[in-house]
Amino acid sequence: MITSRPPYARSSGLELVVVDKNIEKIELFKKMGYSAFVGDFCLLNVLKDAGISRAEVILLMVPDFRTTGRALGAINRLKAELKIDPVVVARVLDEAETVEVKRLGASDALPSSQILANFTLSRFEELKGMVKEKRLRALLRELSGGRIAIVLQTNPDPDGIASGVALKR
């Protein structure tokens, strides 16, 4: 995957270009509005066609270390040929691969475990809310047919009043 800016910045209007051999993945990215190319990102001409000369950041999110090494070799050749110096971040499985991808020219490495941890942390609050919602739904199901007391504060906001009125019916 080649990107001129990190993918999380898409909402800011920044460009993301994806390169993959898998046609289905490429079609999915195109449907999502990204520039996407079918091809082997270990090949110099594919990287050039994808716009590596404009890339500020290159993310290699490949689970296979051998492929990552080949891609880094191609990127290093193009960095010298095109006189570019993008930040290159490679996905790795462990600390040994981190050392090796940096030796092969990556600016940084992103361990798979860190990707999962970051995703989990970013979703944690949402997941906590889902658990609370399930508990509330279960409690309300237990009380079906019974009565529920709703206590509003002495100076409720409009949303509180609307909720109370809606539940009163």
Q: How does this model look, in words?
A:
The protein has 169 residues and is an alpha/beta fold. It has a domain at 2-118: Rossmann fold. The chain is 50% helix and 15% strand. The chain has helices spanning 23-31, 44-50, 65-82, 95-103, 112-142, 158-168; strands at 2-3, 16-20, 35-38, 57-60, 87-92, 108-111. Strands 3-2-1-4-5-6 form a six-stranded mixed beta sheet, sandwiched between helices. Strand 5 (87-92), helix 4 (95-103) and strand 6 form a beta-alpha-beta unit. The relative contact order is 0.09. The model is unreliable at 1-9 (pLDDT under 50).
Summarize the structure.
Residues 15-109 form the RCK N-terminal domain. The chain is of the alpha/beta class and 169 residues long.
Notable features of this structure?
alpha/beta; RCK N-terminal domain-containing protein; NAD(P)-bd_dom_sf; elongated; 50% helix; 169 residues; 6-stranded mixed sheet; Rossmann fold; single chain; RCK_N
**Whole-Å distance between the termini?**
54 Å
Number of helical elements: 6
Mean of all residue-level pLDDT scores:
84
CATH class descriptor of the domain at 2-118? Alpha Beta
The number of E-state strands comes to: 6
Major sheet details: 6 strands, mixed
- C-alpha geometry: elongated
Radius of gyration: 25 Å
Q: Order of strands side by side in the largest beta sheet?
A: 3-2-1-4-5-6
Would you tell me which CATH topology of the domain at 2-118 applies? Rossmann fold
Structural class: alpha/beta
Low-confidence stretches: 1-9
So, the CATH homologous superfamily of the domain at 2-118?
NAD(P)-binding Rossmann-like Domain
Helix fraction?
40-55%
The arrangement of helices and strands along the chain is EEHEHEHEHEHH
- Give the second-level CATH assignment, the architecture of the domain at 2-118: 3-Layer(aba) Sandwich
Provide the β-strand percentage band.
5-15%
Domain RCK N-terminal: 15-109
GO biological process, one term: potassium ion transport
Organism: marine sediment metagenome
Pfam family, one: TrkA_N
